[in-house]
Amino acid sequence: MHRIIKLVILALLLSLPVSSALAQHDLPVIPALCYGQVTSEGNSVPAGITVEAIVDGVVCGDIVTNEAGFYGGPGIESKLAVSGNELDGKKVSFHITGSFNGKEYKQVKAGEVSYWGSGEVKKIDLQIKTSPATVDPSPPGGGGGPGGGGVPQDTDNDNNFATISETLFSYQINVDNGQITENVAISNETTVEIIQAKKEGKTAIVINVNYQVDSNIKILTVPTEVINSARDVNLQLNLNDITLEIPATIVNIFALNKQELQITLQAGNASVIRSEIKAFQETQGATILGTPTEIQTDLIGNTSVTLPLTGIKVPTESAAREAFLSSLGIFALHSDGDKELIKGELINDKDGVPIAIKFNTSKFSTFAIIKLSEQPKI
User: Fold this and answer.
1) Which of 140-144, 271-275, 304-308, 352-356 shows the lowest mean pLDDT across its residues?
2) How far is C-alpha 351 from the geometric centre of its chain's CA atoms?
3) What angle do CA 378, 331, 377 make, to 5 degrees?
4) Count of C-beta atoms within a 10 Å radius of residue 237
């Protein structure tokens, strides 16, 4: 059947008028086709929900769902056509846009598969999560930089913490020239939960943001109303694998100025950091470990930051392990050009395995975990 479909599509393409000067390699690639059901919490989505197939940040096809929650029907022409050059070996991610059950979805990821072949037909069912999935803590060994791994924050058993419901977050994904930006905004409705938490004597508000796609840029926006409701309490922002702990004094300044809080995360330029490390006396001979992280925000004042050790191999032999861990530090290249070497504090998991490094900073820019060539003098 697949062979017949390929031949039909090929015949249609060859029947189109083609200039004699058109080379063979300029002919359009036969698209891969797919269809399936889109569900949310076990229920089919309504008609009119847009399904987009995205490869390397580029939309390679789109289609809308029917009244039964299916995208793509029995005929070739009604299936989702995924087309583009050199797709073999690449991942195709499926994103949903539309509204149902009182919620708005904008390019929310609902599935991912490896490209299944030009002209081939595949049934791919998609599932929308009404709230982002919790990321399990991962030991060192995965990819570095924003979006990989996870740093556990032990707040569930602490009576002083209150965690905001993730159903009150809105997600928007934008693709521009192959670059994916994911915006997460905290709803003003969270003020109800924050005010109630303060009445219960909570001293810290936890916001867990589990980004839904492997984006180049991740943006979190906490609106003015939410900041104002959080006066006199600390804010802990768990941004997938990076944690910011903002003291109440800084929260109060934002509230006083009626200012929203926006935090942008993206991978830092390793080449620039490497060059700056060589030029900075305290870090000469140091080695960058993992991917530098650039944090942009208007926060001013002492804030705690936790970066994961994801992708950094820690020696297992006792003496080598101790020497390695004691040589770790944070190199900070601030946006005003200042450079700083910060020692930081290692964070271990419940088995004593180091999974992150925590440090304080009063300025935000690019931070890199480094291994110093000798015992740090800080």
Assistant:
1) 140-144
2) 27
3) 15
4) 22
Question: CA 54, CA 270: separation in Å to the nearest integer?
Answer: 27
CB count within 10 Å of CB 264 equals 17
Give the whole-angstrom CA distance, residue 196 versus residue 188.
14
Whole-angstrom distance, CA of residue 208 vs CA of residue 162: 11
Question: What is the C-alpha end-to-end distance of the chain, expressed in Å?
Answer: 69
User: In sequence order, what are the residues at sequence separation of 6 or more whose Cβ sits closer than 8 angstroms to the Cβ of residue 363?
Assistant: 300, 332, 334, 335, 336, 338
Is the distance from CB of 101 to CB of 42 less than 8 angstroms? no
- What does the block give as tokens for 369? 């975990």
pLDDT tens-digit profile of 227-265?
999 999 999 999 988 999 999 999 999 999 999 999 999
SS3 216: coil
Q: What are the tens digits of pLDDT across the range 160-172?
A: 889 998 888 988 9
Residues 6 or more apart whose Cβ sits within 8 Å of residue 291: 143, 144, 145, 267, 268, 270, 311
- Please spell the DSSP secondary structure of 335-371, one letter per residue: TTS-EEEE--EEEE-TTS-EEEEEEEESS-EEEEEEE
CA–CA gap between residue 306 and residue 242 (Å, rounded): 6
Residues 117 and 112: their CA atoms lie apart, in Å, by: 15
Distance CA 333, CA 286 (A): 14
Distance of CA 140 to the CA centre of its chain: 18
As a whole number of angstroms, the longest Cα–Cα distance in the chain is 78
In this structure, the strands spanning 345-348 and 242-246 are unpaired
Distance, CA of 94 to CA of 85 (rounded, Å)? 18
Structure tokens at 82: 């995924």
